[in-house]
Write a structure and sequence with these properties.
Number of helices: 12
Radius of gyration: 20 Å
CATH class of the largest domain: Alpha Beta
Distance between the termini: 43 Å
Number of strands: 14
Number of domains: 2
CATH topology of the largest domain: Dihydrodipicolinate Reductase, domain 2
Strand order of the largest sheet: 8-9-10-7-11-12-13-14
CATH architecture of the largest domain: 2-Layer Sandwich
Structural class: alpha/beta
Helix content: 25-40%
CATH superfamily of the largest domain: Dihydrodipicolinate Reductase, domain 2
Largest sheet: 8 strands, mixed
Strand content: 25-35%
């Protein structure tokens, strides 16, 4: 089998997870990486025997690739995807899709018109624990959903700025919105509130420090998803789903392992897994590039999650209920 030539724009933490997974595949050659931070692209390129570029545009203009990964901050999305579409180049995008909804809608339109193979990094869907949770919930559909992302403020200077990350709801908590959609179904309406307080060490921060969204699902279920970045540590990340006689809890114990807790009247059973969902989603995307089965989260599917996170953020900013489907139309 011929080796697929791939590149990666961005060399931060999540890009490192993807590059590490890709470097372990015999049928993949990492040929190029790009990063705007001086020296970082060269350092990462040397590690994988690749070429370094100062930005993604230069990489795409120069290299002949079979696929590319875009692991960039929210504000950098749009031009990169447009360039890949112009080249009919399959691309993997790390969430969130963009800083806003309009950019993501335009990219989605281009994906539909070109038929380019895409995938988006909502990696929780690739956990066996999530598949097991979905099986359990088929017999006891969720009536109540509660989620929480209680964390610190990441050090990246763009993260605490609305014009850099869009805020925690768009940049982080979107994983929980995606998991809720996957396990419960579409959200019909969302009403949110937010708090913005000064952050020590981040004098230019203007993104909310806490937010809560009240969700009304099309199934009739109700839920809340809350988040804060006001802590000095990662305290808890997870989603709880309650059906008749059943509580299913999914949590991220650390950056490398996850937990499923299933509770009934007879007690609780806990399963911990250190499986690597990022490596799994990368292999799935590459198989699709080779003409295999479709990916679990193509761009169009991820757009619906992005629209939900956007609706939650919009509701808090404007002080009104928002219907995600109306934002997509």
């Amino acid at each position: 089998m011929s080796r697929l030539r791939v590149g990666c724009v961005g060399t931060g933490f999540i890009a490192g997870r993807h590059l590490g997974a890709l470097s372990g595949l015999d049928d993949v050659e990492i040929v190029a990486v790009a990063d705007s931070l001086p020296g970082r692209a060269e350092e990462v390129a040397a590690r994988y025997g690749a070429r370094a570029y100062p930005d993604g545009a230069a990489l795409l203009d120069t290299e002949e690739l079979d696929a590319v990964w875009f692991c960039v901050p929210p504000f950098a999305h749009g031009p990169l995807e447009t360039a890949a579409l112009a080249r009919r180049l399959p691309f993997f995008v790390e969430k969130p899709l963009a800083l806003d909804l309009g950019t993501a809608r335009e990219v989605a339109r281009g994906v539909r018109e070109t038929g380019v193979v895409t995938a988006v990094g909502y990696h929780w869907r690739h956990l066996d624990l999530v598949a097991r949770a979905a099986e359990l919930l088929r017999d006891a559909p969720p009536q109540l959903v509660t989620g929480h992302w209680l964390d610190r403020t990441p050090a990246a200077p763009w993260w605490s700025r609305r014009n850099g990350s869009g805020g925690q709801v768009l940049e982080q908590t979107t994983h929980l919105f995606d998991l809720a959609r996957h396990l419960v179904g579409e959200v019909a309406t969302v009403s949110s509130g937010e708090v913005t307080r000064p952050r020590q060490g981040f004098p230019s921060a203007d993104a909310p420090t806490a937010a809560t969204a009240l969700l009304g699902f099309a199934s009739g279920a109700v839920g809340t998803i809350s988040s804060t970045s006001a802590l000095g540590w990662r305290h808890a990340v997870g989603l709880q789903l309650l059906g008749a006689g059943l509580v299913v809890e999914l949590g991220e114990r650390s950056l490398t392992d996850h937990e499923l807790r299933v509770s009934t009247v007879d007690g609780a059973q806990v399963t911990v897994s250190d499986e690597d969902p990022i490596a799994r989603e990368d292999r799935e995307f590459l198989a699709a590039v080779r003409g295999g089965t479709p990916v679990q989260v193509p761009y169009e599917e991820a757009l619906r999650t992005h629209a939900l996170a956007w609706a939650a953020d919009l509701s808090a900013r404007e002080g009104r209920p928002v219907r995600p489907d109306e934002e997509l139309s």
